[in-house]
Amino acid sequence: MEACIELPSLHNQMAFLSRSERATLGTLSRVRRSPILWHFDSTTEHTDHTEFGFRAFRVFRGFTHLERENLVLRTHTCGELRKEQGGQTVTVCGWVDSRRDHGGLVFIDLRDRYGKIQVVFDPQVSKDQVLHDAAGSLRNEDVLRVTGEVTLRGAKDINPKLPTGEIDIHAVTLEVLNRSKTPPFEPSTLNPPNEELRLKYRFVDLRRPRLQELVHFRHRLTKLIRDYFDREGFLDIETPMLGRSTPEGARDYLVPSRVHEGCFYALPQSPQIYKQILMVAGYDRYMQIARCFRDEDLRADRQPEFTQVDVEMAFVEREDILQVIDGLIIFAMKELRGEDYPPVTRLTYRDAMERYGSDKPDLRYGMELKDLGDIAANCGFGVFKNTLGAGGRVRGLCAPQAAAKYSRKNIDELTTFVADYKAKGLAFFRVTDTGLDSPIAKFFNETEQRAIIERFDAKAGDLIFCVADQPKVTSAALGALRGRLGKELKLFDPNQMHFAWLLDFPLFAWNEEEIRWDAEHHPFCNPHPDDVAFFETDPGQIRANSYDLIINGYEAASGSVRIHDPAVQQKVFDLLGINPEQAEARFGFLLEALRYGAPPHAGVALGLDRWVMLFTGCDNIRDVIAFPKTQKASDLLTGAPAAVDDKQLRELNIKVAPSGK
Fold first, then answer.
1. What is the pTM of this model?
2. What are phi and psi of 353, to 5 degrees?
3. CB-count burial class (<10 Å; 0-12, 13-18, 19+) for 625
4. Helix, strand, or coil here: 172?
5. Which residue intervals of 430-495 are DSSP H helices?
6. Residue 571 — pLDDT band, cuts 50, 70, 90?
7. DSSP string of 34-63?
8. DSSP letter (8 states) at residue 627
C-alpha cells in the first residue's frame, strides 16, 4: 500500500492516540523539517520504504515515520524532460490534464506551467495492481506526485506537437496530493466559457495555457524594463499608496482614516507629485513600476487599478525623454520579437487631428482624411454649402476597394455609427471607371467629381465617405470611422507593432458645461515657450510641452516637461480658476518644494498593462492582468467590493446613508 499513499487519509489512524502522543508525532514532524508521511503498521517493527524514496523510523504505538530522502517534491517539471533523460528515474508533480483508460494501461497527461507529459500506469511494469487501480480513479485537475522511469516512445507514437512528445514516464509510485472537485470548465478547452464564469473561477482560468503564456510574457517584459532603466542609471524608488486627494482628472478612490476623524487618504492616480518632489530632492533619474487607481468608467482597455512604468528625469528637455523611451522601444522589440525597430515616427497633435481625426491614430495603414471645402464651395449640394457658410468643414476619407463590400444597408449602419460622434449625416461616393456614383453625385459636375477623385487618389472600386459639420465633429466622426473601416477591411497586419510620438498637445481644453478652462493632461505641464503670450489673449492656442506614445491606435504612454517655476505654475492655476489660497490648500507641499531650488525636469508614464496587451495581440486588457475587475469594477473571485461590519464603520466614524436611487 505504500506505493500509493493518499495524504488526507493518513491522519485518520491518529484518532485513538492521546493528546501527548499526537503532540510527539507533531514535534517529530517539525524537528525534521521535511515532507513526512505517517504509516500505521501494528504488526511489524520496521518496513523498508527506500525503494519509494522514503526512509523509515520506528516510533511508538505502531506508527512508522516516513521521511523522504529527497527534500524536493519533484526532480523535474512536466515540460523539461526530453529523450536525453531516457532510462532515468524521475519525480514530477502537476495537475491531471486528461486520463485515458485502455483496459490494461492507464494514460495520464500531467500538466504544470512548464508543459505537459504523458504518464503511463502499466501493471506489467510496476507489478502493482493497487497502483494501477489508483490511477484509474483519478479525475481531471487532481494534483499528483508521480515517480517513474523515463522511456522512449516508438516512432509511430511520437507526438511532434509536444516538446515532451518523444517520451513517457512509466510510473512506479503515485501520491494524490489533493483531489479536485469537478471544475466548472476544463483549462485545456479550446472554447473557454463566458468571461463572468472565468473571472469567478480565476484560479482555474489561470491554468489555461494561453493565460499562463500571458502571465509569463508580462513577467519577462517587466524584467526587461527594469533591466533597461537600471542600465541607464535610473533608481527604482517607491512612493506612497496613501496620499492626499487632489481632485483633478478622474475621481479618486478614497480611504477613510481611523485616527484622523473625518479625513481621507486617496489612492494614487499616479505618483505625479511625488516624482516631481524626487527631482527637487536631487534624484535625477527615477523609475517605478507603480500601481495606480482611478474611479472612472471602464472599457476593454481600462481598469480601476492598473500598473504604469513611471519615469522622471531632471536637467533635461523633451528630447531627452523621447530618446530614453525610443531606446526602450528598440531594446524591447529586439529582445521580445527579434526585430530591429526603425526611428519612432513623430507628428504633432494638430497634424494628427487633421490627417487622421484622432489623437491616437493607428498608423499601420493610411486612409488619411482630406478637406473638400474648396471643391464643395460651389457645388449644388446645399448641405455642404450651408455647412461651409456657417464656418464648418467638409472632410472625407477613401476606403480602398470597399465599394462592393458595403451595401446601402451597411452604409446606413455606418451613418448610425458616426451619429454617436454628433455627426448629422454621412455622405458617400462609389468610385467607378466613369466618375462617382451616389445619390448626391448629380449635385457635382464632371470637373468637381474629377477633383474629388484626384484629392483622394481614388481608384475604381473605392468608396469615399464625407462628413460636413463643425471641425471637432468632422475629426471625431471620421477618426472613429477610419478606425472601424481599418479593422473591417483588414488594412493592417495584426502582428505588426507601430510606435509613434504625438507632440504639442493643447495645454488647456474648454469645458463647455462648466464654462471654464480645464488642463488637457494635468496642471503641471510646462507651456511651450513660444506660446506664453496667449495666456492673456487666447489660451486655447497654448501648446503644452507634452507628448503621448501611440502604439497601434492606443495611447501607451503620456508625459510632459514639468513646470519648475512657481510663478509659471500659479499662472496656469489662475487660468484653471485655482486662486493662490486654493492652490496652497491642494498642492502646497509641491509648491513649497518648487520654491527650494527645483531643477528643470520632465517625465513620462507608460501603461504596462496596455504594452502587454499590444505586444501579445490581445484585445482585452483583463486577459493580461492576473486578477482583474469586471467592467462594473467588481472582483467576481473574492466578491469585492462588499459591505463591511458596523463595528468597522463605527471605528471610522462613518455612517452609510441610503443612495436615494
1. 0.84
2. -65, -35
3. buried
4. strand
5. 446-456, 471-488
6. confident
7. S-EEEEE-SS-S----GGGTEEEEE-STTE
8. S
